[in-house]
Amino acid sequence: MGRKVYVPKKKKGNGKDDDEDRTIFGGINDIILDEPALDEPPGLNESFEDIFDEAIGAEEGDADEDDSVENDEKSDAPSKKYRKARAKSPIKSRWLVPIVKTAVVERPGLSNKDMRQILKPYVIDIFMTPALLQLTRTTIRRMAFGDPDDNIKYLPELVRQLQEGGHDFEIWTKTQTRVLQKVEEMMLGEFTRLMKAKGVKLTQQDKYDFLDEWKSDNATLLEKAGLLDVASKTQFVSGIFLSLAQARSTVPLLQNVYQADAAHTNFGKYTLYSCYGIDANSNTFPVAVALIFGNEDKEGWVRFWEFVKKIHRCVNHPITTVITDQQKGSIEAMKEIIPQAVNFFCSYHRKENIRKVVKGGSGEY
Which of 325, 142, 158 is nearest to 240 (CA)? Predict the structure, then answer.
């Protein structure tokens, strides 16, 4: 099967008409099909023993302490000369992809240690270099999740297909200033949690100093992403909201109890917002979903409930109950956007919070 590849076309012209149908995402006609080359796996009778001597002749450069073998004269481990073999491996990453693909898709951050454990029956340990494992993991990630720089170029086609299907959707874009603020919030949040775990309480000045240092250390990356150009008018896609066409006729017939929650994705800094209802047969039905850049917060919930309320007004009604966890942003957003609905806290989340915060009732409040 072919895969969709975006190839921007250069247009020449003096008039404004050349670009009237184009956006920062490109035009729909710019999406073409391209057949990728297929790599053949090694033959069944191919032996790695014959090429082992070539592998051990590698230079010392890429070997690291974590992958070295302890030097023990009584051990069957390779000699010091052989321990340098991990600097060069005859194994191709494409050979390993089918073996670990399922594991990496489920856990995109799968460690080298876990990958080696899975590959142990198939590959000699000395050939599983960090570079080989990283390339294998990256390849699978791109196969499963795509590359962000490429994914955004499919947006015009996605919009076209959603329109053809009659679905309700919304694309949320932000300026570079708003995106940079969101990135800073996430970085500062992670740093604050790390310091709190170490028992360090940060002052406001500490936070300012951290952000200044972080921006200085990552200036090249931020500039390449276009986040430092204050004069830029480029809009960055920050979220997509979706409610299926079938939901318009189905949601009014659901029971008046809905569940809403948000979860971090396994890959990338995104949060999946969702709201589900229950039909007469106790089956769940999706009211709406959204994928938003950043952590779960009030801004995301406000935007999500605004989208839901616009399509399904029945959610903002006195007889409607929405079950959520006790996330502060979620609570405030419901009060602001759908104030008539009753917000009921999920018993499971309350039980977990009791265990976590007050150690099952045995700790101090």
Answer: 158
